[in-house]
Amino acid sequence: MQRFLTQVKGDRIIWGVLIVLSVISLMAVYSSTGSLAYRVHKGHAEVYLIKQLMVLVAGLAIVYFIHRVNYTMFSNIALLLFALSIPLLLYTLFFGTTLNEGSRWIRLPLVGLTFQTSDLAKLALFMFLARQLSRMQNELNDFKQVALKIFLPVIVICGLIAMANLSTALMIAMSCGVLFFIGRIKMTHLAILGGSAILLFGILFTISKVTGFGRAATWEQRIRNFSANDKDSVPFQVLQAKIAIVKGGLTGKGPGNSTQRNFLPHPYSDFIYSIIIEEYGLLIGGFGLIFLYLLFLWRSIIIFRRCPFAFGAFLAVGLSFTLVFQAFLNMAVNVNLVPVTGLTLPLVSMGGSSIWFTCIAIGIILSVSRFVEDSEGQLNKEQSA
User: Fold this and answer.
1) What are 210-243's pLDDT values in tens digits?
2) Which of 2, 132, 155, 223 suits 178 as a labelling partner, its CA being 20 to 30 A distant?
3) Residues 300 and 365: beta-carbon distance below 8 Å
4) What is the pTM of this model?
5) Could you read off the pLDDT of 15-72 as tens digits, one per residue?
6) How far apart are CA 90 and CA 188, in angstroms?
């Protein structure tokens, strides 16, 4: 064990956040799957606890092995993964497995497992953008080059994702905007990109409304429900989430004592945050999770500032920001600050492939951190010699 621990490198605080979130996930999933276990497994909620434990253990193993890889290797495979993600997104759009009214998944043959191709596309896109931004720092004033080599890939990926999963597409687009700002893209170029994104959304919405292909009706209904003043228009799951938060109060009802888990649809995924608040209260459950995600982002920004090479710096900040942004969007849905999105809470919601893709991203961030630590350690040795 001691030998294994000595091989664990990278930011120790990020490792700590990862482990704490994993423990929270186990406790929350075990508590929130009671009704599901009663319907499917005759009350044996341990089935989902064991499944989530296996997923998280596999995820931690993924983080460990990825963080041992030199992060520069990801620059070499970024273009391949990006090229692979486009046909996968197209296949998902037309032939993917439909769950919860959206065609977002591909079912793997033989094993029968499903995964969201948008998770792979998101990871590939940020690796690709970090590669492009690091290589084009001297070409950023050339709008034609920026548009073709940086903006166009974002528009293609987000456009393909948006037809089946608008919330994820918008999250990726806004995260890319932050990365571009950090990467010194000119504000005028960013304004053009923003205008193009709005135009693209209008086109996609119109096509979906006219042809019936896509989820324009769902988007319209969710926005209408969110903006309505009539309390009867509030979606059922949002209403139940509000009740859970009110019942939790500041201190919570205690672990395993949630009652709204019996009424909330998917309390173990999209609305797990409200169950955590109900059981652990706003002080520990609500603000505690916010603190953990902000701590993760802060440590990633430190890695970004300390990394001497642009690719690693952009990789760390881009991947960390999109994970934290997703977490805050999920929490905002639970407290009814934004329309229902269907985004899960990273590393906490019950899942399989989504957790593993998140672990790959964290492993890459820790790989950059490990390189920074090794570089600084070597420099200190040379200076003291």
Assistant:
1) 776 666 677 777 777 776 666 666 778 888 989 9
2) 223
3) yes
4) 0.91
5) 999 999 999 999 999 988 877 777 766 656 688 888 999 999 999 999 999 999 999 8
6) 31
What's the whole-number average pLDDT of the chain? Answer: 86
Scanning the structure block, which residue is given the tokens 């041992």? 68
374 token code pair: 């090794």
Q: How many residues does the chain have?
A: 385
Residue range 258-287: average pLDDT? 91
Beta strand 114-116 pairing with 97-99: unpaired
- Which amino acid would we find at residue 119? D
How far, in Å, CA of 221 to CA of 167, rounded? 14
Helix (H) or strand (E) holding 54, with range, is helix 46-67
Q: What tokens were used for 247?
A: 């019942």
| Residues 47, 277 contacting (CB under 8 angstroms) | no
Domain ranges, ordered by start, for the chain: 6-68+234-385, 73-232
Burial of 358 (0-12, 13-18, 19+ CB in 10 A): buried
